[in-house]
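Subject: two folds for Thursday's group meeting

Dear M.,

Sorry for the delay on this. The cluster queue was jammed most of the week, so I only got both jobs back this morning. I'm pasting them in the order they finished. Each block is the input sequence followed by the predicted structure tokens. Could you check whether the formatting survives your parser before we put anything on slides? The first protein is the one we discussed after the seminar.
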Amino acid sequence: MEILAPYSHAAVSLALYALIALLLAPLAGIARDRAGVTPGQRPPADYARKGYRISRAHANAAENAGIFAAVIAAAVLTGAAPFWVNLFASLAVLARVVMVWVHVQGIGSANMGPRSFAYVFGWLMMLLIAIMAVFAGFA
């Protein structure tokens, strides 16, 4: 589809985001099993435990996947500037990778550490894509 070709980086970013969530899913399941919790429950909230951090990283990726997909779809459908959509989508995925790495490794504090900064940066990239889609839709 030639009309989607200018957004190829955004499409790849969307696929990479999905892969991150998909790869975290079995790791989170293993972590929950090792914590002895039943399906649907989370390990005890203890940031010092790696299993809890993996479970939270997966939950956060799953919680934000729909938003990421929605802003990419809106930007493509409204014809927002492909360069910026691609750049912001790529940076959002990079921020997600950093966030997952920092979270799973337990780098920094549970609140307002490097993980929070990576999350906010990715959130800001998604916000910018959404704003571009809104303005492109009214143009």
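Second protein, same layout:
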Amino acid sequence: LDNTDSQSLSLTGNMLGITGGNTVNLSPYLDNTDNQSLSLSGNDLTISGGNSLDISSINTDAQTLTLSGNDLSIVNGNTVNLASYLDNTDNQDLTLSGTDLTITGGNTVDLTPFKDNTDNQHLNLTGNSLSIDNGNNVDLT
């Protein structure tokens, strides 16, 4: 055996070469059809060379979405059930313990800085006059 089946091909420009130095010029096989342009005039889509397509009957942009319960549907009838995306985090409880306000889930806010201690008032009755610590009074006659 002389192992002549093991050959290498190479391409330089339009020249196809094989081991041993033989080459083939591929230029006559080039048709240059890859360099084309598209244009749109009204509803006519045209490719260079003159072929055109009337696209007026293609209207995929007008879609209608509807939501029924957890089902999201598009105009063609395809439906996606969104139930798996529900996290039910809207139902939460607030509790107040001392000056700590807590929401379900454990987040807590200390309300101490907002405490102004103005609720601790004293009432005084002198004759027919009822007064409170801040100086306001009411005549009860």
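Two things I noticed about the second structure. The mean pLDDT is 82. The longest strand covers residues 9-12.

Cheers,
T.
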